[in-house]
Amino acid sequence: MKQNDQAGIIYTAFSYFLWGILPIYWKWLNHVSAYEILANRIFWSFWFMLLFLFVSKRWKDLSLYLKTSLTKKKQLFALLLASLLISTNWFIYIWAVNSNQMVEASLGYYINPLVSVLLGVFILKESLSKAQMVSFGLAAIGVLILTISYGDFPWIAIGLAFSFGLYGLAKKLIQVESSIGLTLETLTIAPVSLLYLGYMYNEGSMSLFHVSLGTDLLLMGAGAVTAIPLLFFSKGAQQIPLYMVGFLQYIAPTLTLILGIWVYNETFSFTHLISFMFIWLALTIFTASRVQYARKRRREARLSA
């Protein structure tokens, strides 16, 4: 294995590890409403990213993108859409963690790769392989088992999967490096978060600067814990094949699932196990098909070279 590949795997795996244990951070803030946590996460992420761009001397990249791309209506719409979708995704996740539904949240990120492909089929008119069709069928059975057994549709899992999947589609339209993208997305929605914080302050219900120093530091630190995994991911994912990223992405929901069951004592019944087994089987087939396709493309590339 090349040195770049090893470094890429380490950076990418570490980013998914950080995302996987992120629920611990939100649990430390479970005395704060999910709305206020989200507003602080957006606001402080924006300032953290500005600081990062300043330290890394990336101002020119941001300025160039603003000059060349944001005069186009399509780019502006995609940026606004991406900002709304990632904010929705963040809110659902924070709310799920602090309402003791981490098991269902992990389900959402397990099925996210399948949802992303499904969106590609319907929106981008991409083709669907037989292995992918089987994967969708198995995953659908898993979701159906949960729905019928508990009489309640797993809207948290589906909401997380579709909001992040649609966010990925919007990012394709923006086509910008991840650190610049996060800066622009948080810039777009930061005024709304600031207005909400101002409203809470006037109502006397704001936790920031009104509860404890620890709460203040955690709320302001939400920007760093949002941006740091993304920066590791962008550095690592550039150095390894896409199928390897596909393997590593299951680290995050697996850690979240483990935390939910064994640390925070959430219910994981036999029905959950059966449902997750269908979904894990679907992901095994899906990932194996992606690896096989990637190897085929590499062989074809070598033969044509």
From TrEMBL:
Localization per record: Cell membrane
Membrane spanning residue stretches: 7-26, 38-55, 76-95, 107-124, 131-148, 154-170, 182-201, 207-233, 240-264, 270-289
UniProt entry tagged with the keyword tRNA-binding: no
Keyword flag tRNA processing: no
Primary localization: membrane
Protein's membrane topology: Multi-pass membrane protein
Source domain of life: Bacteria
NCBIfam families assigned: rarD
Name listed for the protein in its UniProt record: EamA family transporter RarD
